[in-house]
Amino acid sequence: KNEVEQSPQNLTAQEGEFITINCSYSVGISALHWLQQHPGGGIVSLFMLSSGKKKHGRLIATINIQEKHSSLHITASHPRDSAVYICAVKTNTGNQFYFGTGTSLTVIP
Amino acid sequence: DADVTQTPRNRITKTGKRIMLECSQTKGHDRMYWYRQDPGLGLRLIYYSFDVKDINKGEISDGYSVSRQAQAKFSLSLESAIPNQTALYFCATSDPRDTLGNTIYFGEGSWLTVV
């Protein structure tokens, strides 16, 4: 049983397209993270949120606590956005993080 | 300099050999974690430590051991490496004082191949 489910697993888009990646979780959380992993392997945090919506440049993250669902949107996608995007949750009990399997995004020029 | 540093970044080792992956952090965080990443699977927790004297098994601790030498250092050892331990390993830290839940910081990853 996966505590965090992401969709789609793979996504190919044309440059300029609007992209949405979805994340559903089944545990009680104190925070949800969207992470980016580039081909070199390193992981960086894009967003941490516990309610509502956050925006950094062309990236927007939303969360619906009642529905246990979050989305990551990329507007005007660019080839440099090509990466694996990982949803992770911090549980509100047990001090654990759970990770989705990631969404591999390729943006074609 | 990176906040969380892992060494080595890449290693090829033979079956049965002992290998140690080292992690050091400059964040001053008490909480440190070791995860492994395999294709098609999410990051899985191997061990974690919330304090220098605190060591806890994660979901896949068999075949691994850890040492928390200091607040800033957390090492992962494979006592007798086997091919199915070939994976990308990540060290991470978090700060329980973060009021929104724990922010998590990752090292750059260590690619380990067991042949």
User: What pattern of helices and strands is seen along the backbone of chain A?
Assistant: EEEEEEEEEEE
Shape call of chain B: globular
Oligomeric description of these chains: heterodimer
Q: Which range best describes the helical content of chain A: under 10%, 10-25%, 25-40%, 40-55%, 55-70% or over 70%?
A: under 10%
Give the SSE string of chain B. EEEEEEEEEEE
Cα-atom Rg of chain B, whole angstroms? Answer: 14 Å
Mean pLDDT of chain B: 92
Unreliable residue runs of chain A: none
Overall mean pLDDT score of chain A?
93
- The SS-based structural class of chain A is mainly beta
Which parts of chain B are unreliable, with pLDDT below 50 for 5 consecutive residues or more? none
Instruction: Give a quick account of the main beta sheet of chain B: strands, pairing sense, barrel closure.
Output: 7 strands, mixed
- Number of continuous helical runs of chain A: 0
| Fraction in beta strands of chain B | over 45%
Q: What percentage of the residues of chain A does DSSP assign to strands (E)?
A: over 45%
Which of globular, elongated, flat, extended, rod-shaped describes the shape of chain A? globular
Number-wise, the strands of chain B total: 11
Query: Which percent range fits the helix content of chain B?
Result: under 10%
Description:
The complex is a heterodimer of chains A (about 110) and B (about 120). With about 110 residues, chain A is mostly beta strands. Chain A contains no helices and eleven strands. Chain A has strands spanning about 5, 10-15, 20-25, 30-35, 45-50, 50-55, 60-65, 70-75, 85-90, 95-100, 105-109. In chain A, the strands form two sheets. In chain A, strands 2, 4, 5, 9, 10 and 11 form a six-stranded mixed beta sheet that branches. A five-stranded antiparallel beta sheet of chain A has the order 1-3-8-7-6, with no helix packed on it. In chain A, β4 (about 30-35) and β5 (about 45-50) form a beta hairpin. Chain B is mainly beta. In chain B, about 0% of the residues lie in helices and about 55% in strands. Chain B is built from no helices and eleven strands. Chain B has strands at about 5, 10-15, 20-25, 30-35, 45-50, 55, 65-70, 75-80, 85-95, 105, 110-115. In chain B, strands 2, 4, 5, 6, 9, 10 and 11 form a seven-stranded mixed beta sheet that branches. Chain B is globular and about 40 Å long. The chains are: A mainly beta (about 110), B mainly beta (about 120). The interface of A and B includes residues 2, 33, 43, 48 and 50 of A.
